[in-house]
Design a protein that fits this description.
Blueprint: E1 2-11, E2 14-24, E3 28-33, H1 40-47, E4 55-60, E5 75-78, H2 90-100, H3 105-114, H4 130-142, E6 148-152, H5 160-175, E7 179-183, H6 187-193, E8 196-201, E9 204-210, H7 211-218, E10 222-226, H8 230-239, E11 243-246, E12 252-255, H9 259-268, E13 275-279, H10 283-290
Parallel strand pairs: 3-7, 3-8, 5-6, 6-7
Antiparallel strand pairs: 1-2, 1-4, 8-9, 10-12, 10-13, 11-12
Helix pairs in contact: 2-3, 3-4, 7-10
Length: 303
């Protein structure tokens, strides 16, 4: 279990984390979301004791992580894919970590096989692709078989097979009762993987809730409609106050009105419907709505 209580951290005039409080509980994958510069990486480094908070406290299983005698057996973290000495082989990198933490040599071989790097274990890390470096970082996090795991953007640089592998790994570790805390900008993956979501912006907590609750509470629901008289139906729905968007196939996405009412409007107008499907909101929609005021960078579409 990870407990963050009223934590703040400044770097000069910049406040990276501002009075942040939340918990990461065992037995579930907790997704850590926020715009670039929100303070996610800083928060993870504070948890690991790589930086020290200016105020507040962080406890990992009831104590500061920096007080751990064998840290890899308590918490595994993968915070930076390219933080390994490139002159070392993958095997020697893990072996050094194993010896420093009282772990057997056999554990190194086991972890290289687990992450799919057994065939390149003796090669120097400087020749690794980003995806391979990600797998090596995950192997290092798992080396001590810890009950708590932190991953910062672990899916960057991975191909679709690799992304699915990480997703299944995280869910499997959580099913074993471990505490899993993972940051990512891949909303589609977080929607599939995370059981609970913590969202921050400008270093402050924005949301802390189960993923399903966050989506149902925050994301707007819509109705997908298909009809041979779509333009006529759209006009009628807009007059009634609904918001209607056309798809490329002349389908209609209707918000501000539920499916039953859309069907009633069509029946009253004698308009045939080929499809009338309620659409659930998405985690991406919920995230974008929650962080709209917290993003420092907004692009403009141009022609």
């Amino acid at each position: 279990m990870i407990e963050v209580r009223g934590v703040s951290k400044r770097y000069g005039r910049t406040t990276a984390v501002d009075g942040l409080s939340f918990e990461v509980l065992p037995g579930r994958v907790t997704g850590f979301l926020g715009p670039n510069g929100a303070g996610k990486s800083t928060t993870m480094r504070l948890i690991m004791g790589l930086h020290h908070p200016d105020s507040g406290e962080i406890n990992v299983n009831g104590r500061r992580f920096v007080d751990s005698r064998y840290p890899l057996s308590e918490v595994g973290a993968h915070l930076e894919a390219r933080s390994v000495d490139g002159a070392r082989s993958a095997f020697n990198h893990l072996l050094a970590l194993a010896y420093a933490n009282g772990l057997p040599r056999s554990r190194v071989t086991e972890m290289l096989e687990t992450v799919g790097l057994a065939g390149v274990g003796r090669k120097r890390v400087k020749g690794f692709s980003l995806g391979m470096a990600q797998r090596l970082g995950i192997a290092a996090a798992l080396l001590g078989n810890p009950p708590i795991l932190l991953f910062d953007e672990p899916m960057n640089g991975l191909d679709p097979e690799g992304i699915k592998w990480v997703r299944d790994l995280l869910k499997g570790l959580a099913a074993q009762g471990r505490t899993i805390f993972v940051s990512s900008h891949l909303m589609s993956e977080m929607a599939i993987t995370a059981d609970h979501i913590v969202v921050i912006g400008h270093g402050r907590l924005i949301a802390d809730a189960p993923a399903s609750e966050l989506v149902s509470r925050q994301a707007a629901r819509s109705v997908l409609v298909r009809s041979p008289r779509a333009p006529e139906l759209a006009e009628a729905l807009q007059r009634a106050g609904a918001v209607v968007n056309f798809g490329q196939d002349w389908s209609l996405t209707v918000s501000g009105m539920d499916a039953a009412r859309v069907g009633e409007f069509a029946a009253e107008a004698g308009i045939v419907l080929h499809e009338l499907s309620p659409q659930e909101g998405s985690l991406e929609e919920a995230y974008l709505e929650l962080t709209a005021a917290a993003s420092d960078y907004h692009g403009v579409l141009g022609g």
